[in-house]
């Protein structure tokens, strides 16, 4: 796996082409998904990529609701990512159409259309170009219901936009602007991780009685392929999903980043660290309870997203979980995210929160002992012949003593505490003073 | 040209008219609905201002700017004060006839050209003096642009470049507009105008280095290919978000105005981008602030797959100028001489009269939108073919210079093979040149590195040591 990923990484910048390694498969969730349908007809899953799954959802949305409309720049011929292929032919140019090149116009128009009881499904060609429409989304769509005392609403509005890295997008074809929208009460922000998720979540977003901003991971449009049931199904909003169970640490992410995180989990698991991976799916209003329950179990939390770390949505999750789980946390909450720079072209591999950045996060592997300063080295060595509490965070008071401990020990034992029991994990120290894995 | 003259006459007339009106107003204190005296008049402005005198001057000035509009199509009534409404911004005559202004003129605004499709000079056309030297340089650069496009497009297809975008079909707008400007004029491009850089001396190596994002790229490898920029050549770096450069150009022009520079700002936009709010903001700002800026719209018929008929229902872009109080002209963008004439006149007016001018150049995007696009999905092949052959701007100009005895087949062959060779060489050099060092990812976010970035750089360097295979080998650490 690791080798495959690395070679994928190399290909990514040498050719500017993307690689299968990024594709996310959710075999484990297939059964769960189908169970979530109330009345599932005989499931007829077909292998689809993400843009085709979106396309299928749009077909269904237009088919099932004569008051649904799809529009945006270049959607008429199928859109620059092919998500709207065939829709204009099938449903006519008055329901599926090109708009003038004006994002504020697209969203403003969509709000008006939605306010008249229609389902307005607007496409913004790239999330990087959503900002001219920021005012319409933040000041208008988000407050349409509230400011009118619920006399008016534009709940039928869904704004779709491809977001995120793609290997060669540079500043303006790579950004992940979700956090801006997560600061806006009144809209929902949804990001799917795979074709099956995309179809079900998009249909829910379209049919949800609130305006939704739906970001699609463009890197996965072609790369991510999985079985997608052909029928009309919806996946619940504001419900996170544990897509991988584990006991040592909780990892939370969304969209394309989950495939990176899943690979990091696999690597960590080989080292004996059991990871629980959660797909948040809806960023606002988000499912705190699922994340909280998981962190209560594991005692650790790592959040990863492509957007710059400062002010990213990871900060919000981190703060909320510290509020709720302070006494259960065994390490500071970790964030492995994009850097605080504009999204750079040739430096993209450096900017990205890679698998190895995730799996080597010190919060994942280091044990934190708050009271180590009070202990003296001889005493520790006398009591614990093979067990030590080791914290290798240079910023903490016990760092020095722990380094000495490492030097004194051939083997280093980590202790991970939990309320009920004590689990022991064995990790090799490959070099003196350095933690090996 | 003729239209322009007619317009300027009417400007003069209405100017005289207005000045007469205002002087009457202030001398005789004979106000209309807004009161009898100048001060009373001011009070009734629907604006709040702490310094009414400044406001007065401002309003007066803007009145001058807008009043070249002919009061069409309403009957020109007499000057009877009873029959007119004195309204902030100028007098409006009354009419008892209920007439809606038509959504369009009966005839489309004609397109100014000098050369016919064969490159023959049209009878009666006024031609600005174009020396052999300038003409052959225009041709040279148009051909260079063509060869660049062919080679770089191919390089992208071979996987050597991540992205490319050609200017095919728009060589004349690119080069001839550049030729009509002075190097001091500040250019704010959209993205399909590399010809201006070429004209100003950006070398093939400099183009290639940007495309490869190597150490020699002025943009330090941070932006996608074709996002050129050169401080030295007064060419503001390309930004992908559309139309954002347009209001910025007005700000730049205003600064040139305040500094009394013999230069203007020149900004380019596609037809599609004129739908953005920024386009409209820019035109309005330029008119109100009387900024010396030339807006050049390359109306090439398409914005990716969106045809102009789905983009706007006006008669193109040219008519939008008047609505904002901006003088405008429509020009055949595939006639290099016409572009040259129109842009040099526009520039002259912008600078000497300190006002914006809008130029709509009718042209055609012969290539795909970019290497990510297949334009045969949405437009007929014959249409592309027609513009590629019959309406080819490079061939047309070549015919003209050939007829002048300034060009030959031999020179043509030499030029093309020479440029091709230079480009192959510059690609080899660019490919061998290392990428900018990783420190350049963190620099220039601000003028100096803040602590968060210092910390992130340190962390990144530790990660690189741990996982060297995760990182490209051609980026120096
Ligand atoms: C704000 C914004 N929205 C959308 C895009 C995506 N986009 C890039 S080019 C383009 C079409 C532009 O057409 P036009 O202005 O006519 O220029 P042309 O490509 O024809 O030269 C679009 C929609 C963008 N770059 N910026
Ligand atoms: Mg265009």
From TrEMBL, chain A:
InterPro entries: THDP-binding (IPR029061), Transketo_C/PFOR_II (IPR009014), Transketolase-like_Pyr-bd (IPR005475), Transketolase_C (IPR033248). It is an enzyme of class 1 (oxidoreductase). It catalyses: N(6)-[(R)-lipoyl]-L-lysyl-[protein] + 3-methyl-2-oxobutanoate + H(+) = N(6)-[(R)-S(8)-2-methylpropanoyldihydrolipoyl]-L-lysyl-[protein] + CO2. The keyword Oxidoreductase applies. Its cofactor is thiamine diphosphate. Keywords: Oxidoreductase. Residues 48-223 form the Transketolase-like pyrimidine-binding domain. It comes from the Eukaryota. Its EC number is 1.2.4.4. This is 3-methyl-2-oxobutanoate dehydrogenase (2-methylpropanoyl-transferring).
Automatic annotation (TrEMBL), chain B:
Residues 141-437 form the Dehydrogenase E1 component domain. InterPro entries: Alpha-ketoacid_DH_E1_comp, DH_E1, THDP-binding. It holds the Pfam family E1_dh. The keyword Oxidoreductase applies. Signal peptide: none annotated. Keywords: Oxidoreductase. SUPFAM superfamilies: Thiamin diphosphate-binding fold (THDP-binding) (SSF52518). This is Dehydrogenase E1 component domain-containing protein.
């Amino acid at each position: 796996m690791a080798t495959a990923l690395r070679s994928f990484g190399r290909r990514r910048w040498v050719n500017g082409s993307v690689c299968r390694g990024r594709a996310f498969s959710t075999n484990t969730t297939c059964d769960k998904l189908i169970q979530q349908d109330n009345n599932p007809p005989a499931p007829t899953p077909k292998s689809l990529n993400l843009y085709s799954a979106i396309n299928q959802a749009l077909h269904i949305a237009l088919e099932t609701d004569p008051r649904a409309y799809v529009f945006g720049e270049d959607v008429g011929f199928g859109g620059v990512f092919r998500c709207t292929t065939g829709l204009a032919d099938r449903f006519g140019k008055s329901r599926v159409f090109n708009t003038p090149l004006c994002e504020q116009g697209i969203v403003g128009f969509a709000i008006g259309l939605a306010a008249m009881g229609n389902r307005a499904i607007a496409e913004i060609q790239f999330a990087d170009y959503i900002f001219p429409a920021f005012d319409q989304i933040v000041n208008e769509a988000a407050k349409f219901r509230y400011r009118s005392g619920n006399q008016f609403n534009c709940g039928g509005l869904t704004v779709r936009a491809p977001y995120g890295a793609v290997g060669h997008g540079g500043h303006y074809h790579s950004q992940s602007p979700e956090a801006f929208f997560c600061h806006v009460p009144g809209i929902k922000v949804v990001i799917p991780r795979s074709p099956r998720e995309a179809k079900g979540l998009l249909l829910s977003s379209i049919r949800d009685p609130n305006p939704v901003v739906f970001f699609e991971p463009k890197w996965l449009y072609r790369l991510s392929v999985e079985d997608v049931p052909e029928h009309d199904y919806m996946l619940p909003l504001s419900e996170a999903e544990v897509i991988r169970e584990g006991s040592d640490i909780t990892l939370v992410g969304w969209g394309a980043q989950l495939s990176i995180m899943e690979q990091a989990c696999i690597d960590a698991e080989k080292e004996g660290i059991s990871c629980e991976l959660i797909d948040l799916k809806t960023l606002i209003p988000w499912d705190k309870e699922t994340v909280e329950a998981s962190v209560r179990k594991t005692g650790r939390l790592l959040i990863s997203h492509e957007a710059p770390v400062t002010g990213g949505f990871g900060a919000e999750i981190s703060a909320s979980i510290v509020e709720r789980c302070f006494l259960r946390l065994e390490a500071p909450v970790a964030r492995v995210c994009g850097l605080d720079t504009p999204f750079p072209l040739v430096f993209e591999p450096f900017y990205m929160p890679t698998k190895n950045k995730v799996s080597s996060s010190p919060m994942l592997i280091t044990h934190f002992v708050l009271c180590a300063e009070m202990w003296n080295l001889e005493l520790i060595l006398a009591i614990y012949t093979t067990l030590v509490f080791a914290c290798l965070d240079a910023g903490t008071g016990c760092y020095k003593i722990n380094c000495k401990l490492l030097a004194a020990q051939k083997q280093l034992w980590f202790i991970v505490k939990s309320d009920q029991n004590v689990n022991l994990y064995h990790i090799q120290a490959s070099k003196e003073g350095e933690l090996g894995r | 040209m003729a239209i322009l003259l007619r317009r300027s006459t009417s400007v003069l007339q209405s100017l005289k008219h207005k000045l007469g009106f205002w002087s009457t107003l202030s001398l005789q204190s004979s106000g209309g609905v807004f009161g009898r005296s100048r001060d009373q008049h001011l009070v009734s402005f629907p604006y709040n201002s702490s310094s009414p005198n400044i406001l007065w001057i401002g309003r007066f000035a803007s009145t001058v700017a807008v009043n070249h509009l002919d009061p069409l199509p309403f009957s020109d009534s007499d000057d009877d004060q009873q029959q007119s409404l004195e309204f902030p911004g100028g007098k409006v005559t009354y009419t008892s006839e209920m007439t809606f202004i038509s959504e369009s003129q009966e005839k489309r605004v004609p397109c100014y050209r000098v050369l016919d499709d064969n490159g023959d000079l049209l009878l009666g056309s006024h031609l600005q003096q174009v020396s052999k030297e300038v003409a052959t340089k225009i041709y040279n650069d148009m051909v260079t642009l063509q060869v660049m496009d062919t080679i770089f497009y191919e390089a992208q297809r071979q996987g050597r470049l991540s992205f490319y975008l050609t200017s095919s079909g728009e060589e004349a707008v690119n080069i001839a507009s550049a030729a009509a400007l002075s190097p001091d004029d500040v250019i704010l491009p959209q993205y399909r105008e590399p010809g201006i850089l070429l004209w100003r001396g950006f070398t093939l190596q400099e183009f290639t280095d940007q495309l490869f994002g190597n150490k020699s790229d002025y943009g330090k490898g941070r932006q996608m290919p074709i996002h050129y920029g050169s401080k030295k050549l007064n060419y503001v770096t390309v930004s992908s978000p559309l139309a954002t450069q347009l209001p910025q150009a007005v700000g730049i022009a205003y600064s040139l105005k305040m500094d009394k520079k013999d230069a203007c700002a020149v900004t380019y936009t596609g037809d599609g981008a004129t739908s953005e709010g920024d386009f409209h903001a820019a035109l309005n700002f330029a008119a109100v602030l009387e900024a010396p800026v030339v807006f050049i719209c390359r109306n090439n018929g398409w914005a990716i797959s969106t045809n102009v008929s789905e983009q706007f229902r006006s008669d193109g872009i040219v008519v939008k100028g008047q609505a904002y109080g901006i003088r405008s002209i429509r020009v055949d963008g595939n006639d290099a001489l016409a572009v040259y004439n129109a842009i040099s006149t526009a520039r002259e007016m912008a600078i000497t009269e300190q006002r914006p001018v809008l130029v709509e150049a009718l042209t055609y995007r012969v290539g795909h939108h970019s290497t990510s696009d297949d334009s045969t999905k949405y437009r007929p092949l014959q249409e592309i073919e027609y513009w590629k052959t019959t309406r080819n701007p490079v061939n047309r100009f070549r015919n003209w210079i050939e007829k002048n005895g300034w060009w030959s087949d031999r020179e043509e062959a030499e030029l093309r093979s020479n440029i091709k060779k230079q480009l192959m060489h510059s690609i080899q050099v660019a490919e061998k040149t290392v990428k900018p060092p990783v420190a350049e990812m963190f620099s220039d976010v601000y003028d100096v590195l803040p602590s968060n970035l210092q910390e992130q750089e340190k962390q990144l360097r530790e990660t690189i040591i741990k996982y060297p295979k995760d990182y490209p080998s051609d980026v120096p650490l």
